[in-house]
Write the structure tokens for this entry.
Amino acid sequence: MSLRTNQNRACQSIKADVSLCFNQTYCLLQIVMLSFANYINQVRGILESLPPPEVIPMGMDRSAVTDRILDQLKKIVKSESVETVRVFHGFSEMNPFERNEAFREHAKESLPWAVWKIDGIKGLIKIAIDHYLKNGGPMECEEEEWMKLGELMMESIFSARWPVGALQPKPECSICTEPLYTQMKLPCGHAFHMECTVRWLERSNSCPLCRAFF
């Protein structure tokens, strides 16, 4: 048998080993990604299925609310070093001009509900993703623990400082089409968001609806 023949066989053997290794790695990666996707979808499903709180405690100590959320998070993460959870403290933190269409749709039901559906769930999903990636696997917890964490986060949002009527559906501001929770009335009687009104009057001295001049 010639030296070239031996070299060819050796090369073919190496190629076969590399191909097998690649296929095994690819299959393993697919399994890991599927496991990751299933886990995140499971957590998301739990959080999105939670209904609004029936009883909303008012005047809660915000630091106590944060402590309760962190204590519950530790039961899920099972770690001494738990990342700080951003707790929503009230309407003053919101910038209505940074909200997207999904937020506006949820806000038609109530403003706190929109904050929970967009910001609250997103924040908890981020925690689940970060912990999964850092630990190479899902958190070892029961479904009830995630439900409890979601309920505490939602409770903190609904009990935050909101303007009067924020928990009820509201008409839309005709300028930005977002729910009209705070308003400024023009002399003609039509009302819009204060920020929207100021921006509108910077370029026009008439009402956006009836076109009455001021």
